[in-house]
Write a structure and sequence with these properties.
Layout: H1 5-12, H2 16-42, H3 48-51, E1 52-56, E2 63-67, E3 69-71, E4 76-82, E5 91-97, H4 98-102, E6 104-110, E7 115-119, E8 122-128, E9 135-143, E10 148-156, E11 161-169
Parallel strand pairs: 3-11
Antiparallel strand pairs: 1-2, 2-4, 4-9, 5-8, 5-10, 6-9, 7-8, 10-11
Keywords: Membrane, Transmembrane, Transmembrane helix
Length: about 170
Amino acid sequence: MRLEKSDVADLVGEQPRFQVREWRIDRGGWVVMFLIVLAGLLGLWGGGPLGEATVSAGDGSMSVSYDRFVRNLGESTLIAEFPPGSAEADSVSLAVDQAYLTSNQVQSITPEPDTVTARNGRFVYEFPAAADTSLTVRFDLRPSSGAGVRTATIESGSGGQARLWQFVYP
């Protein structure tokens, strides 16, 4: 008497279809775990090449570096850099969307602005600067209005605009 494959499985109580399904689920779980670890290494949860971004104004008047992925009530920075020659009348102005800043707690601004005014839905900051020096402005922020996507337009005094987006995790 010759035993077939299915007969052997029946003798030892195996269920090949169930095992094949279990192996497929197991392999799928390993793939999902690998993708989660890879996303973390690339910076999807902060730090790394996906987590940090830099955008520049079209006219080259400034560049803005920021954290693309942040946690609600976590720490975040936004850095605006102005090249030499950006100052007009010994000051540099920077306008940030009011909606963006009100969805964040502004912890500090370095250097301190000379003046801050609200105009056309934006906060306009004036910083002292010599005409032949560069200026770096740092905003230390804490996202505070829940999870979701945030967008902002940052504008230099010369009219150059940089648009950014952030994803805030809960």
